[in-house]
Design a protein that fits this description.
Blueprint lengths: L2 E4 L6 E4 L10 H7 L5 E4 L16 H14 L5 E6 L1 H12 L4 E7 L9 H15 L1 H10 L8 H11 L4 H24 L5 E5 L1 E3 L5 E3 L7 H9 L4 E4 L7 H4 L1 H13 L3
Parallel strand pairs: 2-3, 2-4, 4-5, 5-6, 6-9
Antiparallel strand pairs: 1-3, 7-8
C-alpha cells in the first residue's frame, strides 16, 4: 500500500479517499495537520500508486488494509477520516480493529445499496454493463460538483478518476453497493467512539446532486441519526462532493475541533 506520512503528535489522523480517487484529495489536510499531529494518507488497492486486481478490491479488503496500516505504523488510537467510499472503508477498519481507533469522521458519505445485497449488487452490475463503465464513471464524477465548483478542479478530478482501470472500477462499485445493503446500518450502529459527519451534498428528488443548506437533513443523515444518534453532524454548504478540497479551511477547522475533543 502506498501512503504518505508526516508530522508528529496525538491523536494521529489517517485519511482515506473515495472511489476512483487518491490520497492527493487530502493534501490541504496533510499540510495543515502535520504541524500538530501525526498524519497518514493512503492509496487504496487499485488506486493511485497502490497496485491491485479486481478480485482484491472490496470494502472488506480496504478495511483490512487500513486497520493493518495503523498497526504497522504503531500509531496510538487514531482518528479515521474517510471520504465517500472511504467512509465505508474506515467503518470496516473500525469493525476489524476498534482498539486502534479513537474517533471516526465521515466526509460526504451516502448509502447506495438497499434491500437484498445480492440483488442490489446484481442490479448495479447490470446497469454498468448496459451503460459501459467509462460512460458511467464520467457521468458519476460530472454529477459530483455543483454550479459554483471550480471547473478546473472538476476536470482534474474527473481525468484522474477515469485512469482507474475499468475492470477494477466496474467490479468495485457494485461491491460497494452490496456492502451498503449488507453492512452499512450495522456498521454505523457498532461505532462506540466519537463520530462526526461532515456533509456537503445530497441527491434531490430528480437524482441531481445539490449542496446542502445549514440545518437541512437528507436520507443519509437521517440514517446516521437513527443508527448512531450520538454523532456530531456538521454541514459545509455551497460546495460539491469534495468539501475537503473545495472548502479546506472549514473542513480543517471541524477536524481540529473534533481532535481537540478527544484529548
Amino acid at each position: 500500500m502506498h501512503y504518505v506520512q508526516a508530522g508528529q503528535g496525538n491523536p494521529p489522523i489517517a485519511f482515506v479517499h473515495g472511489f476512483a480517487c487518491t490520497h492527493e484529495d487530502w493534501q490541504a489536510q496533510i499540510d495543515h495537520f502535520k504541524a500538530t499531529n501525526a498524519v497518514v494518507a493512503c492509496d487504496l488497492r487499485g488506486h493511485g500508486e497502490t497496485p491491485g486486481d479486481s478480485h482484491d478490491c472490496s470494502i472488506e479488503s480496504y478495511g483490512t488494509d487500513v486497520a493493518s496500516l495503523l498497526g504497522e505504523l504503531k500509531f496510538p488510537p487514531a482518528i479515521l477520516v474517510g471520504h465517500s467510499m472511504g467512509c465505508r472503508a474506515v467503518l470496516q477498519a473500525y469493525l476489524y480493529a476498534p482498539e486502534r481507533v479513537a474517533g471516526i469522521v465521515l466526509v460526504d458519505g451516502s448509502r447506495l445499496g438497499f434491500g437484498d445485497p445480492v440483488v442490489a449488487e446484481r442490479v448495479m452490475n447490470e446497469q454498468l454493463r448496459a451503460t459501459g463503465y467509462g460512460v458511467f464513471a464520467r457521468r458519476l464524477f460530472d454529477e459530483m460538483f455543483v454550479v459554483s465548483s471550480d471547473p478546473k478542479l472538476k476536470a482534474t478530478i474527473m481525468e484522474r478518476a477515469l485512469q482507474v482501470r475499468s475492470e477494477i472500477g466496474g467490479t468495485l462499485f457494485p461491491r460497494m453497493v452490496g456492502w451498503d445493503a449488507r453492512r452499512m446500518e450495522a456498521a454505523l450502529a457498532a461505532v462506540r467512539v466519537p463520530l462526526m459527519i461532515i456533509q456537503s451534498t445530497t441527491m434531490n428528488a430528480e437524482r441531481i446532486r445539490v449542496s446542502l443548506a445549514q440545518n437541512q437533513s437528507s436520507p443519509w443523515l437521517d440514517l446516521v441519526k437513527s443508527r448512531a444518534p450520538g454523532a456530531r453532524i456538521e454541514i459545509v454548504s455551497g460546495v460539491g462532493h469534495f468539501p475537503q478540497v473545495e472548502a479546506p479551511a472549514k473542513v480543517n477547522a471541524l477536524l481540529a475541533s473534533f481532535a481537540a475533543g478527544l484529548k
